[in-house]
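=== Structure Prediction Worksheet ===
Name of assembly: unnamed complex
Input type: mixed (protein and possibly other molecules)
Chain count: three
Listed entries:
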Amino acid sequence: MIKDYINEIKEIFNENWPRFRSNKIGMIGLVILIIFLFFAMFGPIYVKIMGPEYLPVNGMDLSLEINPNTNSYAWPPSLKHIMGTDAKGSDIFSQFLNGSKLGFIIGISIAIGATVLGTTFGLISGYWGGTLIDSCIMRIVDIMICIPFLPLLIIISAVSGSMNLITFIIIMIMFSWTGVCRVVRSQTLSLRTRLYIDSAKATGASNCRILFKHIAPNVIPLSFYEMTMIVGAAILTEAGLSFLGFGDPTQMSWGMMINYCRAQSHVFKSLWWILPSGLGITFLSMAFYLIGRSFDEIVNPRLRKRK
Amino acid sequence: MIHVGFTKYITRRILEGIISLFVVITIIFFLFRVMPGDPVSMILDPKMTPEMKEMIRNSYGLNEPIFVQYGIYLKNIITLNMGNSFHYSKPVFEIIMEKLPNTLLLFTSASILASVLGIFLGRIIAWKRNSNTEYILSVVGLFFYNMPLFWLGLILIYIFSFSLGLFPIGGMIDYQLWSFNPSIIEKILDILHHLFLPLITLTVSSFCGMMFLMRTSMVETLKEDYVIAAKARGLPDKVIRNKYAARNAELPVITALILGISGSIGGGVLTETVFSWPGIGYELFRSTMERDYPLAQGCFFMLSLITIVSVIVIDVVYSYLDPRISYD
Amino acid sequence: MKELLQVDNIKKSFEIKKRLFKSAIEICVIDGVSFKISKKQIFGLIGESGCGKTTIGRLVTKLIEPSSGKMFFNNKNISEMNKNETKEFRKKIGMIFQDPYESLNPRFTIINSVKEPLDIDGRMTKQEKFDCVKNIFKKIGLDTTEYFLNKYPHELSGGQRQRISIARSLIMKPKLIIADEPCSMLDVSIRSDIMNIILKFKQELEMSAIYITHDLSEAKYITDFVAVMYLGKIVETGQTQDIIDDPYHPYTKMLISAIPDIISKFKINISEKIPDPMNIPHGCAFHPRCPYAKEICKRIEPENVNVGEGHLVKCHLF
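=== Predicted Assembly ===
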């Protein structure tokens, strides 16, 4: 059965790739994505080439003098440090590359987790809509959307000291699946009344079969779309949490960079420190969003052909 | 035009809201009791004397089994006794009530502005597809939608406060000015002056999402037969756009609003922190940093309450507006 | 019992969910329907929209369950079948739906749609399934090339799609098919083709069918027995030729006289009132529209009266 599923996904992919290629928005998104992917992978290589002083988290360039303008080791971009250095002398460029890597890891893991969970529950809830299990799942969803998750994350960090990255990812997954679930459920609800589902039932198809072979393929493109949206949201939330100072201190994410900048009161003194991280977050999130939008235009069921 | 079904629906939603609140309370309770470390330190002010500590221990029933503690905890919440803040040495409840109007001011004005702008601009973009307006607005919207809101705030401060000196860097009021006892109008103007940048930040961040959503749902609505029929009848474009298509297109936007409120509260917290806006979000941040546990709990509780109430209000308004849904 | 299908006093009500003004309403869609079908018989169900004929089709195929009453297929009670028995049951029946556009999954190629029953059965190899599909396509008159088999439903015409639906329902060699207005969404020129296919398979597979339609001329062409339905009840039933030549019930007469191209011997004025399943009249459900209505018709529901060989009428006139 899993093989069938994979075949389905492959089929959908092959079907839509040419359409995707011709879509300008999607291609721009893809290009930006590839650039950032390159950044992410280049990070460790850069450190290897340039030496341990360029480590994003702990590395410091000991040869630097104090910058009279900023009263710290923060220097504007130069030949040695392409994006300059931060207050303690760390290279900003390698921090930027590291941030890209973290952005991908965080964004994609949360997106995949939330989408898989949300789609599964959405399918179950929608297919058996109106029954007890649907009500249960929907009540849980309704309750969860009422809980503000950034404050919750803050409180959790308050109690446990600081937020480990894995903990963050798990909690984000637990809160993000609800959006996907709702959307998938409403799609499933409308699909299960279609005539061909009755047709399949009349030929003896089991519920399982109908869910996986008939309904799921129509729902998967929607899930992909939601997944791209979640990546952006996840990256932004992590940045927000790190900015407040509750992120994982062992990781130098983009949000952390902004946090340190503010903590060291360098926001107005060193523009080169505060700009790259924010722009990084913006563009990476934008790339996923653009790809998702182009998906939406291609596979949205409203593009039904008129008879 | 309120029918039995409608009232039942509101009641059900309110009940669900109360359950959500319960869940929040329980989460707070267990977080602070079950987490590693001495649960006592969560409530006890390090500045207290040992006798006071013992007294508080007993009043919170910390020597009793956990169910009893939960009961006492619930009783406390219902009687609005949330303990005293370590930092301020005042009851938490008082502090929250003080700060609540500030947060509400920022949050509601941003929400309303964002919705209005979002729907208004979304309508325009959907109508004039493939035009320059659409292109520009889309690109601008795209940028701001994906921009981290706190970063935007910092940049705005840099440009408008630091470099240009047009707006204050933070805070809600100018303490010096107010110590001279100015008139009401001057006070209001001062607040507005301080409100401007945080409002812009929070609004810009939220309105883009709504604009795009409105555009998407308008595009779908415009394809519907009744719009084509309206055009065929010769109704002016503006009327079709605003009265026919937009009305129906607004509905999914409202749904999205519900799902997004929880995120907006988070945005509010970030904005307040960046601008040192003395609201509940800022207090949450500060109290967490300083390990002022009672205040942190109280702030989280209040923010959850705001979220729950907003969700219910919007949900009910939506059900009222959409004649198609049934209240089962 | 030698009957293939026996339906005994089936009743089905639906509950309409609460809307703004009203609380839940129960609509009785089928109110005491009974009939029998033997082997190699095509049984027609005729009536206007809303009389419940589609619901009967769904009840027989176990897509919905009756509120009361029993149905027997080969002496087995359909409602009491367990999972395995249901699976076997489904292999022996087939269903053809009214809408050729919606009854095929738009994401499945034709071959995938048609061989789905074989997939569910799970006993054949890939090649065997392939041959089976090709076989049946040949009999139905569809192209059997690889090119055609890999097409999608939206690339085909309504007539072709309906044939594919028929192919799918026949591929398991069922003993009973339920055809729910298979021709009503097709062009007139194609209708006789579709009906001929059903007749052909009736001979070949010794198959029976329930043929649901609102078109009397279709019923005349294809059915052996026919039952006329009105607001959830069968008001007249008998051999098709009998009923068409010699209708008894006023409603049947009305239906026949409404056919534009038959010079009817029974011209009746058709009253304006449209039957509403939410407001079923007291007594005989037809009395508001009946030109022969008497006092008794408004109060007491008529019983079945035997007026000939297997010819039953529910009317106070006889």
